[in-house]
Design goal:
The chain is α+β, with helices and mostly antiparallel strands and 241 residues long. The protein is 50% helix and 25% strand. The protein is built from seven helices and eight strands; from the N terminus they run H-E-E-E-E-E-E-E-E-H-H-H-H-H-H. The strands form two sheets. The protein has a four-stranded mixed sheet, covered by helices on one side. A four-stranded antiparallel sheet has the order 3-2-5-6. Helix 4 runs parallel beside helix 7 and helix 5 runs antiparallel to helix 7. The protein is globular and about 60 Å long. The relative contact order is 0.09.
Length: 241
């Protein structure tokens, strides 16, 4: 009888471990219309290197699914290897969250036509990108104007263009800071501070860091932002000595 009880107990433990191993935090599904063959890689940054979390072979079926361990919201990179076709439009950033996320796109415009659902952080990331693109367009236009003037031998407007450029940059940075502070309860906030305005005055980065909710402050990007701010402050202190 003891042997039977022990055997049952062992099976229950093994079953429990098996279920635990099978349980994943994120189910990532997607469809790439027009793709017949290729490989989809799901990657993330670990330390300073991209590591592959999963790779899915596409052979006739343009849909894919991946079960991933994702303890907290984090930026993932979906990279498409098209095989013989070479293009720069082969990488898609997805701010993933535990749960279910779906990616719908097509082969021709893999990045531009991508629609991601199931992640609030990614929705906010897309909102930020749309806002930020306006500033980037303005900066591009000013740069083009400056280059055209240079080619034409005109230098009278250089100071004016530089002043306008600095003003746009200031507005761009203030918009990013405000966006991060206004969304302090989401992990996108410290991510934007680190990836978009890391060279901003440390006092502004500190403002973002101190505004974060306890949950976000203790997240991967929240901790990275805190560490980065401390490093910047130490560097500044060393310079003033």
């Amino acid at each position: 009888m003891k042997k039977v009880c022990l055997a049952i107990a062992t099976l229950l433990v093994l079953a429990s471990c098996s279920n635990k191993d099978q349980a994943k935090d994120l189910t990532l599904t997607g469809t790439i219309k027009g793709l017949k063959t290729g490989t989809v890689y799901i990657q993330k940054y670990q330390d300073t290197s991209l590591v592959v979390l999963d790779s899915i072979k596409i052979d006739g079926n343009s849909s894919f699914e991946s079960q991933l361990d994702l303890a907290e919201p984090e930026m993932l990179y979906i990279v498409l290897d098209r095989g013989v076709t070479s293009t720069i439009d082969n990488s898609l950033l997805v701010f993933a969250e535990p749960g279910k996320i779906d990616v719908q796109t097509d082969l021709k415009h893999f990045y531009a036509n991508a629609k991601v659902t199931g992640s609030k952080n990614h929705e906010l990331y897309e909102n930020y990108r749309k806002m930020n693109s306006k500033f980037n367009d303005q900066l591009h236009d000013l740069l083009q104007l400056d280059m055209d003037n240079f080619k034409a031998g005109k230098s009278t407007n250089t100071a004016e263009i530089t002043e306008k450029r600095n003003l746009v940059l200031k507005r761009k940075y203030l918009a990013a800071i405000n966006f991060a502070v206004n969304h302090k309860e989401y992990e996108i906030a410290p991510f934007i501070a680190l990836s978009e305005i890391s060279d901003a005055n440390v006092k502004y980065l500190d403002t973002i860091s101190k505004s974060l909710t306890p949950k976000v402050s203790s997240s991967k990007y929240g901790k990275m932002l805190g560490d980065y701010i401390e490093m910047r402050k130490e560097d500044q202190a060393a310079v003033t000595k």
